[in-house]
Amino acid sequence: MKRSLIAIATLCLTAAVSQAATVENKDDKAYTLVVTEGGQRAEIAVGAGQSMTLCNSGCFLTLPNGDRETLSGGETVEISGGRAKVK
């Protein structure tokens, strides 16, 4: 299971940027997001001030407050003040 999560995270992080969503953590605190893509669920840690790409072919993203968003790629999720906004 741990290998699967690492593999999913690696695939998400190395996916083509043009169709991927971007997560920008502008807080000074790290957050864990749950990404469900292609039926596979993975927890992704986004460090303070870190930006990463994920969801190359669309996904469901569970935000730190428990809300779920559907991403199709190209969106930017900005975390600021403890809140996440999809742009």
Task: Describe the fold and architecture.
It contains 1 helix and 8 strands. By secondary structure, the protein is mostly beta strands. It has one domain (2-86). It has a 4-stranded mixed β-sheet. A 4-stranded antiparallel β-sheet has the order 3-2-5-6. It is globular.
What is the CA-based Rg, rounded?
12 Å
How is the main sheet built?
A: 4 strands, mixed
Q: How many structurally independent domains?
A: 1
Averaged pLDDT = 85
Number of strands: 8
Which percent bin holds the helix content?
10-25%
Q: Uncertain regions: pLDDT < 50 for 5+ in a row?
A: none
Distance from N terminus to C terminus (CA atoms, Å) equals 32 Å
| Number of helices, counting only DSSP H or I runs of 4 residues or more | 1
β content, as a range? Answer: over 45%
Strand order of the largest sheet: 4-1-7-8
N-to-C SSE series? HEEEEEEEE
**Could you say which overall geometry the principal axes of the C-alpha atoms support?**
globular
SS-based class: mainly beta
Provide key terms for this protein.
mainly beta; four-stranded mixed sheet; 87 residues; 46% strand; 8 strands
Describe the structure in brief.
The protein has one helix at 2-14, and strands at residues 21-25, 31-37, 40-46, 51-54, 59-62, 68-71, 76-80, 83-86. The chain has 87 residues and is mainly beta.
Fold topology:
Elements lengths: L1 H13 L6 E5 L5 E7 L2 E7 L4 E4 L4 E4 L5 E4 L4 E5 L2 E4 L1
Parallel strand pairs: 1-7
Antiparallel strand pairs: 1-4, 2-3, 2-5, 5-6, 7-8
